[in-house]
Structure prediction request, 253 residues.
Amino acid sequence: MTIRTATLQGVATIEIARPEKKNALTLAMYQAMADAINAAVADPAVRAVLITGQPGIFTSGNDLEDFMQRPPQGADSPVYRFMRALLDCDKPVVAAVTGAAVGIGTTMLLHCDLVYVSDEARLAMPFVSLGLVPEFASSLLVPQLMGHVKAAEKLMLGEPFTGSDAVDCGLANAVLPAGEVVNHARRMAERFNGLPPGAVRDTKRLMRAARQASVPPVMQAEGEIFSQRLRSPEAMEAFQAFFQKRKPDFSKF
Ligand code: COA
Prediction:
């Protein structure tokens, strides 16, 4: 079992549970997460969605073996379906970032509504180091959040950053001790049980309205370049170096 789902007291929890591979996300896991979000939207008993990981690891991002063997192909790919479900989710989505959040692990936070981060977490968007480019509108939303130069450290240099940095730049609400982050996020999610769901839904839609126009074309442009770059010699060198546990050598490009 790599994605565990459970609905309790109005909160649909999606728990990423593949700790032996640092919660790297496979095609099947993306599909399970997409299905879980869509089911939560359809279930009137659900007032909020909670996405969480394992102690010390939220997710190490896309499974790099999948990137090599089964690269995502356009809008019908499971990763796209998951992100589409997240973007279209009209109920509040709360993230409990239990540890490292790499690649899409950080990107997905841009599309959540409340984000709580463990004090042990490190966030990173190392797309360039992998020969890739930002995804799911992060090339638009990260500079909007923190300004170009801070975004360049994160997206162009791929520098990791802490939960406190994430709070400072408006990507996260609060940093919590590692042992408390999931319970705190759950309590915040449960607060929606006491609020009128129609007003919550309408407020989320209004808050996201400006993005509805700007995000899809950026996502499409990023997706096209991302797909090309997945097959590039630069990306192949980066993926092989990861699995061979060595530093990549980009000097020949
Ligand atoms: N895809 C596939 N396998 C992954 C993975 C990923 N994204 N991340 C980790 N793993 C695997 C490792 O290959 C290793 O497998 P093994 O035990 O069979 O050798 C296992 O998970 C443990 O990973 P390891 O790197 O030894 O753990 P760590 O605690 O030293 O480091 C991370 C944790 C998350 C910092 C590190 O694993 C990492 O950087 N992963 C890749 C992140 C990445 O580039 N993601 C893609 C972004 S687009």
